Structure formats: C-alpha cells, structure tokens
Amino acid sequence: MGAFKSYDIRGIWGKDIDEELSYKIGYFIPSLLSASEVIVGRDMRLSSPLLHQHLIEGILDSGASVIDLGLTTTPMVYFANVHYKAKCSLMITASHNGKEYNGIKVSGENSFPISYEMGLGKLEELTKNGTIEKKERGRFSDKSREIREEYISFLKSYLPDLKGMKIAIDSSNGMASTIVHEIFGERDCIYINDTLDGSFPSHDPNPLIEKNLDELKRTVRENNMDLGLIFDGDADRVVFVSEEGKMVQPDYMTAVLGLYYKSKNRLGKAVLDIRTSNSTIEFLEENGFTPILWKVGHAYASEKIIEEKAVFGGELAGHYYLMDEFFGSDAAILTSLLMLTAIKENGGKLSAILEKIIRYENSGEVNFSVKDKDGIIDHLFQYYKKQGPERILSFDGYRMEFPSWWFNVRKSNTEPLLRIVIEAKNRELLEEKRNEIENMIRSF
Length: 444
Hints:
The protein is of the alpha/beta class. The protein is built from 15 helices and 21 strands. The longest helix is centred in the C-terminal third of the chain and has 17 residues, at 427-443.
C-alpha cells in the first residue's frame, strides 16, 4: 500500500518504510515546512532506534537542526512543538499497530497535523524524485529530560483529587509506561503492562480490540476498582473500562468529557467523527453543546476544531481533542484526568453516568478485509439510497440516517479494511440491519 497515508506515514518496517526512506524524509521535511529546527521523538518499537538514527541524519544533512526528545509519548512531542515554537515535529511510531509496523507522525507550526493533502503527498514525491545535496550539518541537542519535566508538571496541573478512587491502568507495554506512575501515583492504583517492550508480549497496543482489554477487565473486577484505563502504543488514545469490568465505547466517553466542560461553564461546539452514536450527539445537545460531525483522523479533527473554534472533540477510536488545554490536539493522559474529574463530580460511578447517556443499540466498529472496497461502498449506497434516507453525510465514506437506524461505511486510512458502524433504536432492528449489510458484503 505504501507508507504515505491520509494523515501520517506508516507501514511494515523493511517493506513499506526502511532506513533509506527514513533518511529521505528527514532530508526533505525541513524545506517542505520551512523549518530550520525539527523536533524528533520516538516510541519503543524494535525498529524505532534505526528509524530514529536515519531520520535525524537526513535532517542534519539538510542543514536543519534537531531537538531530540528520545523515548517519548506522541502528546509530549506535540507539547514540545508548541513549547519550543517549532515549525516541525516528527514522532516515530505506528501508534496502535502491531510490532512489525512503524511510521512517522508529522506536525507543523503550533503542532498542526500535516495530512497527505497538506504536505505528505508533496513529501512522498520528493522522496521519490528529489535531489539530495548534503549541506553544512545542523546542530543536534538532547532535550529529553528538560521537556519531560515540563510536560509532567503540565499534566499534574490538571490532576484531580483521586483519594478513594481505585484505578487500574494498562500501558500496553507502550510509551504511557514512562509517565503514568508519576501522574497517577501509587495509592489505590494497579499498573499492568507498564514496562517498555516493543514486541508487545501481553497484547497488541490497540485498545479498540476487546480481547486486548481482557487483563484490564479482569483486574478491575477482581480488585473492585472504580475504573480501568488502557493506552495505545504512543499514548495518544485511551479507552475506559467501567467499575463493572466492561469496555466503554469511546464515543460515549466524549459525552462524559462534555460534562467536564459543562462544569466549567465552557459550552460551545464539539467536533465528533462521522461514526459517533446518536446517544452522544443527543446528550451533548441536551447539555448545551453544538455537535459537528466530521471526518475521522487526527489531521482532519484538529483542523476542524480550530476552524470551528470548538471547545473539544472526540472519536470512536479513543482520540479526544482539547482546544484550549492542548491546542486542538489529542493527549490521552491529559484527557483521562479531565474524564476522572467529570466522573468524580458526577457521583464517581461511570456505569451510572453511562445509563444517562446511552439510548440506542450500537454495533461498534465492525471491520471487513475485502478486496473491492470501493465497489462494496457504492453497492451499499445505491441499495439504501432507494429506501429514502432522511440524511446522507458523504465526507468520509458516508453515513445514511433513517428514522429508526443509521449506518456508516468507510475505508480505513491506516489499514486495508472496510469499516462499518450500525446503530438502531432496539437490539432486534440492529441485528436485522447488521445481518442484511454483512450478507451483502460477503456476497459481493
């Protein structure tokens, strides 16, 4: 598929992305973003040190300087970007993907994400056809300790009083491991998978796959914890487990985040991805917010939040975007602290809060590995358009809404998958429509 995707660079190490491509990206990115200095961080993947080395060599050979953060979370790179007033930052990570993957998340000034349309497409062209002429090497500086102290201090400023609240935290052997102990402390917390290991021995770093939450759910139940948190590989996503030991669909937690902002009397627009449940949309509307549905993905969400001057945003994938607190970017640990504040202020039981939010039956995101994704998308569109939907949204795949149900179909931007979400007024109708759609996909 190639490494250059809609909103990052990502692929299988040694196949889609390698040392040569890493060097070329490093060489061409400073001129593309008019950056004399580039911030670089990396995760703990087994291929990350090599990617890191060649990326930095390319940057220095272009004449630009490097601020190296070493091992870090993705949100810490965003924080450093703004802190140092940089015009470019690069985070080496494949986020939630398995150990064979790696990649680079590219941000411009003020940590604004660079999508394919905004520059990654041009960068891909340069790596294929551009000319490399080594210049006087730029300076290299290690700011890993300095920025870590600054970032932890920043996070602690949002830490609520957790006394009496028992929390289980799964870092997925990823980058959250490096800071969660200092943020949440040792009292009433149980930490699992909190050592860095790029082979991901316990489970893949994807918190949306429910089997990856088995250990966390068991820990919550067996120890009577009030809440469970699980972070992905680079700690920009978080998924919650209720005190009942059940995974909470992330778009419902966007509604919980709305309670935090309501308590601060900060009402306004909320940017939600096209897959978001009507339960969340209606709850936010009832609490004074104006929901705006938009495309899936960090680059698109951040751009829309800034454009709309929204208060916050949220995605089904477990990304949450904070405008004033974090310049429209996502930061999983910071978001967790805001969520914990809202949960404590609203009785302390997440399951009780969710009872007020959830009104419909929802499939969650169902993935299909198929060859002709475009053909299936068009077939579903033509079939259901004849049934007279009340509304069609077509900016990311499409969402068709009917009086008692809706569905969204879209292609994954990061994996070779077709993704479906279905929601209905009751379980019977949900199962009927799910079987109907799945049968069409299988027979195509």
